[in-house]
Amino acid sequence: MISPEVWLRQQARSVTGKLTAAVGWSLTVGLLIIIQAWLLATVCQQVVLDGLGLAPVLPLLGWLTCVVLLRAVCVYLSEEAAINAAAQVKQQVRTQLYQRLLQLKPGGRAGETGPLTELVTTGVEGLEAYIARFLPQMVLAGLLPLVMLIVVLPSEWRSSLVLIFSAPFIPLLMVLVGKGTETLNRRQFGLLSRLGGHLLDLVQGLPDLKIFGAARREAGLVAVASEQYRNATMKVLRVAFLSAFTLEFFSTVGTAVIAVVIGFRLLAGDLSLLDGLFVLLLAPEFYLPLRNLGLSYHSRMNGIAAAERILPLVDECKKTCNAETQRYRDDLETDQKQTSTKLSFSVAPLLRVSEADHAPELICESVSFRYGGERGGVQDISLTITSGSMVALVGASGSGKSTLARLLLGLAQPASGRILVNGMDLRDSDQQQWRTTLAWVPQQPFFFTASIRDNLLLGCPSADQQAIRQALEQVGLQTVLQGLPDGLDTLLGDQGAGLSGGELRRLALARVLLRDARLVVLDEPTAGLDAANEQLVLESLGRLAAGRTLLIISHREQTISHCQQVIELAAGRLERICTPREFLGWQR
């Protein structure tokens, strides 16, 4: 894996034009500073020594005003170009991260939602200062002092020697202090990532914490973590202020020495006031690019710390993508050897999956998948789910039910083995077309604050009134909605407030009917319902099953009894495949 700074500079190559413009405008500002210093020195010479009044120097003051205004415009244009460059880099890095995460699929980074969210937001924001501040200042620190040194040398060579010998101390001190802050920056970013993950876990588990009376204790832990992050931030700021002081010290001492040299030469009559004042005005500006580089060196540390956290994810996703591509090529070569015509392999099966108008048949052949940790995943699963069947997926918590469902839906790729859909490897299908044939109904279906009609049309916005009416009748909601004041236009509150739990489950099934999915996966469709509502949902499931393959994750005996087949998992392995009667008899 390449180093973080090399990766950052690779990202910056895409905005070379904008960064060049930022540097160009800043160089223009430097030239205007030289002109401004000469104009000020000339005005002082004519007023103090030549004894001219205000009227003769008005043209010079006018030019001085124009230079100041032009300098402000150039500063604005430089900042604008640098910020636009940083924004473009952040956008492309975020896009790259999103694409990599999509390649990993939802099952690829289990339990890391908080750190990933913090990485894509705050982590990417840490790149801005490196692109917009450090890279342009690094170029300016090499060019502007050299230009000013060339201008000063003919006027006062002694002051030029002071500038030459004092200038190297600033970047040297910058590097020494920067090395000390590098570790502090890494530690601060690590604390921020852990704090973000911890807060997200607490928000997701807040109801459970309240039930068990642990909310106050966890609030104390959050306070401790926040204090640790505050202390880490203050340590970084302490070093930053210290480095700023030392950089200012050397530039101030250098300017003071130049002032002493010029003062003695003016007293001796060896130097004109114009040249002396011109050099004295330029001395602080000579050190300014070097001081800015020293201050932006902390931006470099922040950018590298952020890149160190982004690179492993990008690298991991690249490896995953390359492994999947290699597996695909290996499978393609094998199938081409076994098939006399390449067209029969590459086109016909694809059409059978992507354009199928019937319930798919699913076959798992030695399928294995593991998450990052030791727990979770499935191992060596081989089974067949026949077309048009209603299958129950059962097992204890953590046995791999949700993981197997994700694999069957194509939301995660097997680490080994393969999944066949109508006889074709799921990896070889058109994923976009395949997902149009799917429906996933979680244990708590998603409903947003809008009308019942809007929530119903979420899966199929183009459905007409006739299709909506038929879907509602099939799930037994037509009469219920007719009793509401506004019918389908009745507004639902947050998370479906306004309908009962059973009615919301049936509304979710109606949404599946409108989508006309061929493969439907339902997670605990009757959990938490009373007997009457459970029966209504089961009757709706019976009508939904017509012409579809249903996979139901459930622990309810009543739900399992309506299925044709039961797949039981234990510790990520296939325990057995049996009928509902055999399973329920075993349970008793």
How would you describe this structure in keywords?
alpha/beta, elongated, ABC transporter transmembrane region fold, six-stranded mixed β-sheet, 588 residues
Compact summary:
This protein has 588 residues and is α/β, with parallel strands linked by helices. The chain has two domains: 242 residues, ABC transporter type 1, transmembrane domain (ABC transporter transmembrane region fold), CATH 1.20.1560; 231 residues, P-loop containing nucleotide triphosphate hydrolases (Rossmann fold, 3-Layer(aba) Sandwich).
Rounded to an integer, what's the Rg over CA atoms? 35 Å
Strand tally is: 10
Do you know the CATH topology of the largest domain?
ABC transporter transmembrane region fold
User: Order of strands across the widest beta sheet?
Assistant: 6-7-8-3-9-10
